[in-house]
């Protein structure tokens, strides 16, 4: 996952070499600061009304922690580097689970081959859209590939990076299935889209040509695909919400982009409200996750190809990164289950309020 340019760890790692940190960080920081100056359209303004408490409690009752962990997370905790059998198996699992939902999602695979430092590699991202004909889309994204580690060492399972985000998206789609189906049936103008991106990780050394393979290919394809009169699929995205590096204890998540700050504030407000209602576990303070203040540094991640094209971005990623980042210790054993389930609750309310689910 993601190049973090100033949180004490360089993302430009290779299976065989590490560039000097300061030079790497300066290069990454310059790249992202330039991207931050890229003009983007403002995200849709948040609705004025929160869910009534009875509605909120009913909604959260549809979430199933055991299903999230057992049915959705466990199958993802395998080595799944691009082009590998594990990658293909996980991609098929994602497709099957999305197609099985009663709401009737359109599920497509963006498959392609790209040159890499290791030669041509096959990539395939999963794109699920609830109502393809809806004028506008709220897009939630994560990556499902895992980082390539040197042979002979321990495997890298990427529990936070990014099995948990993928499991969260599956659980949200399953738990909110009845409401999403009603939203689709009534022809809501904004629909939900889920992206499970392949090839986020560098195969050798992080750089513009060796990273974000699936995101780069899909952003370009969406830019070139018509969606209604005079619009592209890319322009139909109201906001692109990227989840990454989630599942470790005590995450600190901050807002990265001014044009989505109001929606970040909505996440923060939801966390406060759920805390006050006693609906979050192992959560001693009103605000633990979605905190105010600038992030510790810029992060290069799957949102960048969409940001470059003017799409509003809400980046949900902890800074600093989890201590297990890009180590063999990024396993199920080092996840914090209450945090995972608390985040599923915050995101469920967020989706219901954004999409006007009922």
From TrEMBL:
Polar residues composition bias: residue spans: 7-17
User: Membrane topology per the record?
Assistant: Single-pass type I membrane protein
Q: Which GO terms describe its cellular component?
A: Golgi membrane
The record lists the organism as Monodelphis domestica (Gray short-tailed opossum)
Q: What is this protein called?
A: Glutaminyl-peptide cyclotransferase-like protein
Q: Which reaction does it catalyse?
A: N-terminal L-glutaminyl-[peptide] = N-terminal 5-oxo-L-prolyl-[peptide] + NH4(+)
Q: Which domain of life is it from?
A: Eukaryota
Question: Region annotation Disordered: residue ranges?
Answer: 1-51
Domain Peptidase M28, residue spans: 126-349
UniProt record similarity statement: Belongs to the glutaminyl-peptide cyclotransferase family.
- Which keywords does the record carry? Acyltransferase, Disulfide bond, Golgi apparatus, Membrane, Metal-binding, Transferase, Transmembrane, Transmembrane helix, Zinc
According to its UniProt record, the EC number is 2.3.2.5
Record flagged with keyword Lyase:
no
Q: Does the keyword Acyltransferase apply?
A: yes
């Amino acid at each position: 996952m993601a190049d973090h340019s100033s949180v004490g760890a360089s993302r430009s790692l290779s299976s065989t070499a590490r560039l000097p940190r300061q030079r790497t960080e300066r290069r990454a920081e310059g790249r992202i600061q330039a991207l931050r100056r890229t003009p983007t359209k403002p995200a849709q303004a948040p609705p004025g009304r929160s869910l009534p408490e009875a509605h909120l409690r009913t909604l959260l009752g549809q979430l199933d922690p055991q299903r999230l962990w057992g049915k959705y997370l466990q199958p993802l905790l395998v080595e799944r580097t691009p082009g590998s059998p594990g990658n293909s198996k996980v991609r098929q699992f994602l497709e099957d689970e999305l197609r099985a939902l009663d709401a009737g999602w359109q599920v497509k695979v963006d498959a392609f081959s790209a040159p890499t430092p290791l030669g041509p590699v096959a990539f395939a991202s999963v794109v699920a859209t609830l109502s393809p004909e809806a004028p506008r889309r709220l897009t939630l994204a994560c990556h499902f590939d895992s980082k390539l580690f040197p042979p002979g060492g321990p495997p890298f399972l990427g529990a936070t990076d990014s099995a948990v985000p993928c499991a969260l998206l599956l659980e949200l789609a399953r738990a909110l299935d009845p409401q999403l189906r009603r939203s689709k049936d009534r022809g809501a103008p904004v629909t939900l889209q889920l992206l499970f991106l392949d090839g986020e990780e560098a195969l050798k050394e992080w750089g513009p040509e060796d990273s974000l393979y699936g995101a780069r290919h899909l952003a370009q394809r969406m830019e070139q695909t018509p969606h209604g009169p005079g619009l592209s699929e890319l322009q139909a995205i109201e906001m692109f919400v990227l989840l990454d590096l989630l599942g470790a204890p005590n995450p600190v998540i901050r807002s990265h982009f001014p044009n989505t700050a109001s929606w970040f504030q909505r996440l923060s407000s939801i966390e406060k409200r759920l805390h006050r209602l006693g609906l979050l576990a192992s959560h001693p303070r009103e605000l633990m996750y979605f905190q105010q203040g600038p992030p510790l540094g810029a992060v290069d991640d799957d949102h960048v190809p969409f940001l470059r094209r003017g799409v509003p971005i809400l980046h949900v990623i902890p800074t600093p990164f989890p201590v297990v980042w890009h180590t063999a210790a990024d396993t199920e054993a080092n996840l914090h289950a209450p945090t995972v389930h608390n985040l599923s609750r915050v995101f469920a309310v967020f989706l219901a309020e954004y999409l006007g689910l009922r």
